[in-house]
Amino acid sequence: MARPVRCGLIQARCELSPEKHSLEKIKREMIRKHERLIAQAARQRVQILCLQEIFFGPYFCAEQDIRWYPQAERIPDGPTVRWAQKLAKKHRMVIVLPIYEEGMTGVYYNTAAVLDADGSYLGKYRKHHIPHTHPGFWEKFYFTPGDTGYPVFETRYARVGVYICYDRHFPEGARVLGLNGAEIVFNPSATVAGLSEYLWELEQPAHAVANAYFIGAINRVGHEQPWDIGEFYGKSYFCDPRGKIVAQASRDKDEVLVTDLDLDLIQEVRSTWQFYRDRRPETYDPLTGR
């Protein structure tokens, strides 16, 4: 018997540049845009919806400037979470809400809050793996490595896990999410064309196969000024436990990607590929010992 759940991903561009607009206006306009997109998802009867990484502004890690610190909010007591809770309750929709979090004064995280379909706050995931690589990805300037572990949230419709952007390059956490019972793992991201685009449709389907769960991968779209570190190429998608991309968004436009996922497929796949049975955790000490 099928156990379908209708899921959605939102990918969106940030047109406003901090050279021309205040950070407060950018945040306000992005929240307004997403309210419209969330309403569009609701009209399509989406039950679980995930937004892109730090959805309420540009990918500001393209520069190192403390002016972005005040954009962080407390979770769950900040205004953006309260705003999303009202929408979750109104639309009877689970919302995965990635925002910039102030954990305490001067300590910040890249975080996703998970809200149930009645608007209640279920908890949060803080991004564990923080890049500081080539020009344009200066995340260690803004984010403390996450300390939440790899929680799985029992929502009204499914057991949901979260992995954020750069996390996807690390299979260890993806496996822990499976061991913790995740049925759908969402990966909100901000990634540009180049080396990562080939990996975009490789790594996460591999995680889905290795762990036999669904993945929803989200990427923003467009060129963000004034930095223009590259094209955020969209192509958000859902992947099933066999590693097949079952729905994919466009490369270059705002979009709400909607598809139905049959959670019973997880049981079917795990009955065929016994990866959890055949694990040898007693042999994996080198993974944590060095």
Q: Mind explaining what this structure looks like?
A:
It is a single chain. The chain has 290 residues and is an alpha/beta fold. The chain has one domain (4-278): Carbon-nitrogen hydrolase (Nitrilase/N-carbamoyl-D-aminoacid amidohydrolase, 4-Layer Sandwich). Helix content is 25%, strand content 26%. It has helices at 23-43, 79-91, 171-179, 195-200, 203-211, 264-272, 285-289, and strands at 4-11, 48-50, 94-104, 107-115, 121-126, 152-154, 159-162, 184-189, 214-219, 221-222, 232-233, 237-239, 245-248, 255-262. Helix 2 (79-91) links the parallel strand 2 (48-50) and strand 3.
Instruction: Extract low-pLDDT stretches.
Output: none
Span from first to last CA?
Answer: 45 Å
Q: What oligomeric assembly is this protein in? A: single chain
Integer tally of domains: 1
Average predicted local confidence, pLDDT: 96
Question: Which range does the strand content fall in?
Answer: 25-35%
Instruction: Decide which structural class fits the backbone.
Output: alpha/beta
In the CATH scheme, the class would be: Alpha Beta
Q: How is the biggest beta sheet arranged?
A: 6 strands, mixed
The SSE order reads: EHEHEEEEEHEHHEEEEEEHH
What do we call the CATH homologous superfamily?
A: Carbon-nitrogen hydrolase
**How much helix is in the residues?**
10-25%
Q: So, CATH architecture?
A: 4-Layer Sandwich
- If strands are numbered along the chain, what order do they take across the biggest sheet? 5-4-3-2-1-14
Q: Would you tell me which CATH topology applies?
A: Nitrilase/N-carbamoyl-D-aminoacid amidohydrolase
Number of separate strands: 14
What general form does the structure show?
globular
Counted by DSSP, the helix tally is 7
